[in-house]
Structure prediction request, 367 residues.
Amino acid sequence: MIIGVPKETKIKENRVAMTPQGVASLVGQGHHLKIEMGAGLGSGFTDQQYQQAGAALVTTAEAWDCALVVKVKEPLPTEYSYLAQQRVFTFFHLTGVDPQLTQELVERKTTAIAYETLEDENGRLPILAPMSAIAGNMAALMGAYYQAAFNGGHGVQTARILGKPSGKVLIIGDGIVGQHAANIACGMGASVTIAGLDKSNFDRFQADISDQLQFIQSTAENIQAQVIEADVVIGAVLCKGAKAPKVLTEPMLKTMQPGSVVVDVSIDQGGCFETSRATTHDDPVYSVHDVIHYCVSNMPGAYPRTSTFALSDVTLAYIEQIAAMTDEQLIADPYLRTALNTWQGNIVYRQVAEDLGRLAHYSPLNI
Prediction:
């Protein structure tokens, strides 16, 4: 199969969908790789390295004109014209981005294979997991950074000071993002509380991270009580393929201390705070009711080399499978079919259709 890797176009998105090692592996299996010139530079990979691995260096249009296109982030409006009846394997987050993208995918009969909905045999999300881990680590760091007075924060360092914890961090969500955010925040020495739904997750976190970690059941009443004194609130809520629920409402936000910080890691899926809107690495924060909001929609792009290796470690095996499959084999595979969001001019992932109000365009896959 001919596989294309375009250069990412999202602001400050320096990840690349494939490493030179991945290219060499696929070339060795008989596939033809087309890498857009400069696609890997942000992650530290030169064009020469890709050529030595067996890839052809091509233009943007040529990288898109392939049977399978592999990316990191969703196609942006400047890329819509390249969409055709090819397979595109990337993060789409269709319920959290411009609905026009879904319309374009349907009209152009693109096969959208979404990293974020692909499940393994245990119902987990193996491609989303490493990016969630990196974003969770980063969320605690960004919360601490924007607490600095020179950033408009109220000047509380969320860290241990001579053995005494300083600052209060509330993490809403007990998945991978929440786990990694808690690990960093506890490591720095803040007083950390997780609002979750599964106490068994918390027991594991407490054993692995710190016995000082606190847990509350994730209810509106409990969250309201916590945010009043929180210096940093991290939103780490995930519903597979669906819009994130609004767990922090605007009335709750109004009770927070001026200069406190909220970090919405769920922003790719529309955000889990009522006052969230997507921001970029160029302009990452804004304030509502004197509360600083950090809502960058491609957080792992800040650490492109780490993120690229972590992503390609899990995607390569799936790329190999997808490239070797016929359409019939693709939709019959019990795990890869969970990643299919659009197919032959239809939305085939029900939650996407529901959240976008397009159930009339939903068509379940027939095996």
Remarks:
- The two ends are 23 Å apart (CA to CA).
- The longest strand covers residues 191-196.
